[in-house]
Design goal:
Length: about 290
């Protein structure tokens, strides 16, 4: 087992020796100490500016503030749900266009992907909200969809192209049409390989929903801004940020956990698991017949 592990490790890089392992241990201890020192310094500054006094945390016990935060969280999840679904659909459509054998369709899809991927998402949200006079929620969802959908299109295209060419050729040799090959052979394997990247892009979409407060969409950050603007003590934004930040971090961690759960589920899926073959048993392979005559 040890020899096998050493062989697999050396296929990517040289196995570190005793001195290298000691040096890595020293680097890890120093890095951990620096991170702890930075964290301690931040906590000291918070205590030094009296950010943990009861006066600054009592307002969060009010029912009105709690309802405002819950409403903002619900609006954030609503925008994220619409944006994620539409982004996946748009990414699939654009990826299909980029993989098309028809040159005009491929050029149009490429132009759309490159344009929306290069355009800042905040500019698109403001343009849709101000120039097209769209309501805050549709404007936010549209901007997030155009940007994240174009990025996901490249993710899907890369995933499909990463599948071995032999599988595509084998599927065609069985008489499958191109649509069937894409649907049943290439797309499932490509999405499975790109699942971590897809979830990472959805995390970006979740965080970008905070841009909605710039167009007066009442999401979580907008609710925090309203709360901080009505508090009558110094530095009111710090307690609000300390309440809102863990919520965003928790939602992103849930998405990461969901990606890990999906990956493990696919490994346990009977359709993707290898089939156990019974070991060969001694015996004749062909039935014995009469010997041919002269």
């Amino acid at each position: 087992m040890t020899a096998q592990l050493s062989t697999e490790s050396s296929a990517l890089y040289d196995v570190p020796g005793p001195k290298t392992q000691q040096r890595h241990l020293v680097y890890g201890v120093i890095s951990t100490a620096l991170i702890l020192a930075l964290f301690g310094w931040i906590v000291y500054l918070l205590f030094d500016t009296n950010q943990f006094t009861a006066t600054k945390w009592t307002p969060f016990e009010y029912k009105g503030i709690q309802e405002l935060l819950l409403t903002g969280l619900g609006n954030t999840l609503k925008a994220f749900a619409f944006a994620s679904v539409f982004s996946l659909v748009l990414g699939s459509v654009l990826a299909t266009g980029r993989l098309s054998e028809h040159r005009p369709l491929r050029w149009i899809a490429t132009l759309l992907v490159e344009f929306f991927r290069a355009m800042p998402v905040l500019v698109m949200i403001f343009f849709i909200f101000v120039a097209l006079k769209v309501q805050p929620l549709p404007a936010l969802v549209a901007g997030l969809t155009l940007y994240n959908g174009s990025v996901l299109a490249e993710v899907f295209r890369t995933g499909v192209n990463s599948v071995e060419r032999g599988q595509k050729e084998a599927a065609f040799s069985l008489g499958m049409r191109k649509t069937q090959v894409m649907t049943y052979v290439l797309a499932p394997q490509g999405i499975r390989a790109m699942l971590p990247t897809i979830i990472s892009q959805l995390v970006v979409a979740l965080k970008d929903t905070s841009l909605g407060y710039l167009i007066t969409y009442e999401e979580l950050l907008h609710a925090g801004k309203l709360i901080a603007s009505n508090l009558d003590y110094d530095l009111p934004f710090i307690p609000v940020v300390m309440v809102i930040s863990p919520i965003y971090i928790g939602m992103c961690m849930l998405l990461s956990w969901f990606a890990t759960w999906m990956a493990r589920r696919q490994k346990r899926n009977p359709k993707t698991e290898a089939v156990d073959v019974a070991p060969a048993e001694p015996g004749t392979l062909l039935p014995r017949g009469p010997l041919p005559g002269p």
